[in-house]
């Protein structure tokens, strides 16, 4: 917005596209000048006072708050808003509100800081759409009286504290390692059972196992849980894949 845009001595006012100007006479609001050329009468003390943009605008709000399980998070909201096109809304936006952006930011803070503390961290990510709807409802109700319409208010990011993120990554890592260890233990038991069925006077099997290289994998030659028969296999070699280990087990005639 700009103020005190006094018209030229001849009374001609140019209003750009996507803008409007408020017209005053002796300091009182008399109307709205829409895009185009307007002729005012200077001797009647008519002038334009403010210029307002009718474009859609976006405000990024970052609000730090605490979840129910005492984790600090930063919730980022992108609010898209616009002044309504009717003259009454333009008048309200020009004369009833000094700074729309600060007002919107205050309402976003109020909704986020009253909603997130009731929810645990894991649920915040799942319920962000509901929080966004609450923000939109509150902003629409509060800003409509100032001539503004709220087009959208999506939550664009939920950023926990750095230490919390590291802890969450470690928890997920340990869960995956436990699953991998369980799979390897199951394979070890199955393989030991198959070896126990083999007879020493017959060529029982020649098997190639291709498994990921991992300290948890029991088919590593140095793994303590490897059966003696497998550990002494004479034909162990590395796979052509760097991330795999291939072990050939040959059971001879005894």
From TrEMBL:
This is Band 7 domain-containing protein. InterPro entries: Band7/mec-2_domain, Band_7, Band_7/SPFH_dom_sf. PANTHER family: STOMATIN-LIKE PROTEIN 2, MITOCHONDRIAL. Residues 10-172 form the Band domain. It holds the Pfam family Band_7. It comes from Calcidiscus leptoporus.
């Amino acid at each position: 917005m700009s103020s005190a845009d006094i018209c030229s001595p001849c009374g001609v006012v140019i209003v750009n596209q996507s803008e409007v100007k408020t017209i005053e006479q002796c300091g009182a609001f008399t109307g709205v000048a829409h895009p185009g050329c307007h002729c005012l009468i200077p001797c009647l003390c008519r002038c334009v006072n403010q210029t307002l943009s009718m474009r859609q605008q976006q405000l990024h709000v970052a609000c730090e708050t605490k979840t129910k399980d005492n984790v600090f998070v930063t919730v980022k909201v992108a609010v898209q808003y616009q002044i309504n096109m009717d003259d009454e809304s333009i008048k309200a936006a020009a004369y009833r509100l000094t700074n729309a952006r600060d007002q919107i930011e205050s309402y976003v803070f109020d909704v986020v800081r009253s909603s997130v503390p009731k929810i645990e961290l894991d649920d915040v990510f799942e319920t962000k759409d509901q929080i966004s709807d609450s923000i939109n409802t509150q902003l629409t109700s509060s800003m409509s009286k100032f001539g503004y319409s709220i087009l959208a208010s999506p939550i664009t990011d939920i950023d926990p504290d750095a230490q919390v993120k590291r802890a969450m990554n470690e928890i997920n890592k340990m869960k995956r390692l436990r699953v991998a260890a369980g799979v390897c233990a199951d394979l070890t038991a199955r393989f030991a059972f198959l070896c126990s069925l083999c007879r020493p006077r017959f060529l029982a099997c020649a098997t190639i196992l291709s498994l990921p290289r991992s300290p948890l994998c029991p088919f590593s030659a140095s793994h303590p849980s490897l059966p003696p028969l497998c550990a002494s296999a004479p034909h162990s070699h590395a796979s052509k894949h760097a991330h795999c280990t291939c072990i050939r087990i040959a059971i001879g005639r005894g």
